[in-house]
Request: fold
Amino acid sequence: MTTRDDTAAATVADTGGADRSSRLHHRFEAIWGTPPGIARLSAVNHTSIGIRFIVTGFVFFVLGGLLSMLMRVQLALPENDVLDEGIYRQFFTMHGTTMMFLFAVPILEGFAVYLIPKMIGTRDLVFPRLSAFGYWCYLFGGIFLYSSFFFGSAPDGGWFMYVPLTDAQFSPGPNTDFWLIGVTFAEVSAVAAAIELIVAILKTRAPGMSLDRMPLFAWYILITSFMIIFAFPALILGSILLEIERAFGFVFFDAGRGGHPLLWQHLFWIFGHPEVYIIFLPAAGMLSMIIPTFARRPIAGYTWIVLSVIAIGFLSFGLWVHHMFTVGIPQLALSFFAAASMAIAIPTGIQIFAWIATLWNGRPVVTIPLLFVLGVFFIFVLGGLTGVMLALVPFNWQVHDTHFVVAHLHYVLIGGMVFPLFAGLYYWLPLFSGRRYSESLGRAPFWLMFIGFNVTFLPMHLTGLLGMPRRVHTYAEGLGWDWLNLVSTIGSFLLAAGIALVLLDVILHFLFGKRAHRNPWNAGTLEWAIEAPVPTYNFISIPRVQGRDPLWSQAELVNKMNRGELFLGNPDSDQRELLGTNTVTGEPESVIRISKSTWIPLLTALPLALFFFGLLARVYVLTAIGGALVVVAALVWLWTTGHRQAPDIVDAGCGVSLPIQYASPQAPGWWAVCFTIMADAVLYSSLLFAYFFLWTVSDAWPPADHSPGSLAFPLIGIVVLLASSAVVVWAARCGREGASVRFRYGQLVALVLGFAFLVLQTLMLLDFDMRPQQHAYASLVYTIVGFHLVHIVIAMLMAGFVFFRSWFGYITVSRQLETRVSSIFWHYSVFQWLLGFGVIYLFPAML
Amino acid sequence: MTLSDYRLDGWRGVISGFVIWAAYFVVIYAYLSVGCEKGLSDAELLGVNTVTLGLVAITMAALGSIGALGWVGFASWRAAARGNSEDEKTTAGTRNRFTGLLMMMTSGLALLSTILVGFPVLLLHPCQ
Reply:
């Protein structure tokens, strides 16, 4: 059996007189390559994972599209009976759910996972195992959702799953459970990818790539990823609450027992409106990369575009109530959201003007990607204008829940996401395949799509204005909707034919396309410095960039890079290495060693699937087994991430020596845990929001028959928790000073205090005079306490982990990363309970 | 040290205007909701509804803070532009000019958004 070293050495020997670049290519390929056969499933490299996300996303796009075709067939004629009402409900629910959760977000994250490392000049994402784990979660979540069709129980409550329609009384079957569990599973993937992309963009850009030189796509993905961190937890929390209300009889949305259905709408749309921009921004990022290339000049208004992306990132969180204009909220509050909904048109407009200015001042070449871009201008701008109309409260009331809204959202989403995606697909195809598509073949699908789209959705503005509601499976003759619906259906077939032709064109180009040379478009950004199709390691050595379009301004960059003369050009370590750089300046700070191919992500995602399946089937033994196996898999995952023998300082090339990440204060792991805590804090804030929302709408909070129990257990609990934090601080200081035995004692004492707190909280709940099934107040108290206890258990697992890592020599005076990660999580968990204690015990006393 | 001498470096300055806007938005919506639900709008001060007064005060505080940030951004941008005239292509100079300008621009847009969102407070009764 040959080792990788043998293979690499043999390869070097075989190539003999080949040039240095070729030898380096073979050596890096040996380190970064994906194993063949079934072992491909163990790949963690961003190129493989990105392609998987993209291909799977397209599969779901086709499935979601087929559902919509069947819906259009049903609506083609009045009083049609191709689909009955129940099936129609399942189809429109799964169409929306598929397009939003299984196509739009994952495929754009897939493009980001694939492209971002190449654009910012690095070899991979910083947490390759997390990339692979995210993909498996997405795939399993999608399979979960679609498996519901085999049981005749596909979700049928609409993609926003409003209660009480979806509560246990009105939706007693498993349809809603499939949605809640499947979507939550897929959302884990979105959050994981977002955290990883943020850390990659902030910490692994090529040297010299300061914030003002970042490719615009990286800016868009950075902001989008932050939006995912702040938006998705609200829906994850909503889904958890609805599932435990359905499964265990807790109360959050049942008005008869202190809950309120509007709570679901708030949680859903706090996620749901930013979601629209989470989909739009990466697609707009693609446009900002494509337009300068085909205009053959740098983008106009780079700073203005960054301004608009940041502004959209924030403003999009101030729009959610415009989906709830008809629920009876005071007019002044509606005006806040109407104003924010109109304000967001300003940054969106800035972007569009910057794109037009780039084309105006350039020498545009109308290729297929640019055709799709021009299609975006027409379609998305129309959708944006109807969006401003819908932001006006009186107009919104008039067309609420009509086909006008359906037309608007498709103009925005297909114009703002699908057309840019197809532009991007054609633009970056040479990277994927090493081949060029046919310019002549690609024009027919574009025109079919463009005409088909407008013929489908333009009439819906009219049917909507004529009063046709959304989600009706049929309609009576003679209401003036007949011919408009028929036209829409004909248009939808044209659109579908266009999409099918694009997919056929792409498949054909893989078979018959001409070979593409490096940088076929003469683009300026780093992904085009790579040979096509791209090698697994991306760059033989990492270049220093001196501008926003390095390929246009640094003539010798590619040659130097390929000769291994720049950073990390020496493969002798036999490790997958990245360069860690400064967040703002992009100057080198550390060398990051990352994981090679491994089965661990799949073996972690599988028991997680068992965990969710147990919840769905309400066989909680399976949930417990799945949960325990996930913990075991996670511990194995973490234990195998360190390199105990790696030197603290390594040669990074170009005469620079840098600390390895475990010894660097700027390690990616540290940043990742900070962003994870941020996402978790949003989840917790959403839970506290639920508490305060129900307080504002309730007559008596806590309910009149509730008497506050003894404060003894909670007060002792607070003291114990604060003491544990002090011990963790002391232990960390001991660790930094080299007193590893005292460090380990500190972890043990923290564990004991954590366990004591668990016991005290259990006693406190036993002392509580209400069951969670009685009233929303009790449900929230139990949920807040339970949510926090899960954190304490995780903190204890982390403390136990660092105890053993110290014991086995992974944690030393110079390698404090794991201690820092474990400590900050401990303190965060303690802080969480200080808030929880205040909400549960102090707030009611103040009322 | 005057406001013009103050610097907010890198990404913090770039997002701070909108962070204040986001906080402002959450606070006014929460204050309005709680105020109306819990009967604060029944009270008056100087003949003006107390909920409206509170909203105006919060809006003025937000406008003042964002305006100050915008001024800091403007000063940072000017300082970077002055100090960098001979060395146009140094990374530090161009970067500071970029972040200063961006801070000023984001603060400007956040200011405009705050005015747009806050203006109806003067026109509408808070709880109808």
